[in-house]
Design a protein that fits this description.
With about 80 residues, the chain is an all-alpha fold. The chain has one domain. The chain contains 4 helices and no strands. Helix 3 packs antiparallel against helix 4. It is globular, with a radius of gyration of 12 Å.
Length: about 80
């Protein structure tokens, strides 16, 4: 996937921290480490229907890291 096709919502720090405790999410994040950004987006899409808060937070982190641009297209 070359571009994230969904709207990214903003969440409170409290909400992010609450969902970040989820062990299955932490395992999923570990599984994404070291993979190309396009593959990470594919993995996030599969995860999205259950875990929207984690997905939005991770997409925003990819933007902050310069891996996605403001239109959510892969930069690197």
């Amino acid at each position: 996937m070359k571009q994230w096709p969904h709207r990214v919502h903003t969440h409170s720090i409290q909400e992010i921290l609450e969902y970040a405790k989820d062990e299955s999410w932490q395992k999923h994040r570990e599984d994404m480490k070291g993979r190309p950004t396009e593959e990470k987006l594919d993995m996030l899409l599969k995860w999205r229907h259950i875990h929207q808060v984690q997905i939005d937070n991770y997409i925003n982190a990819l933007k902050r890291a310069g891996q996605l641009d403001m239109e959510l297209k892969v930069v690197r």
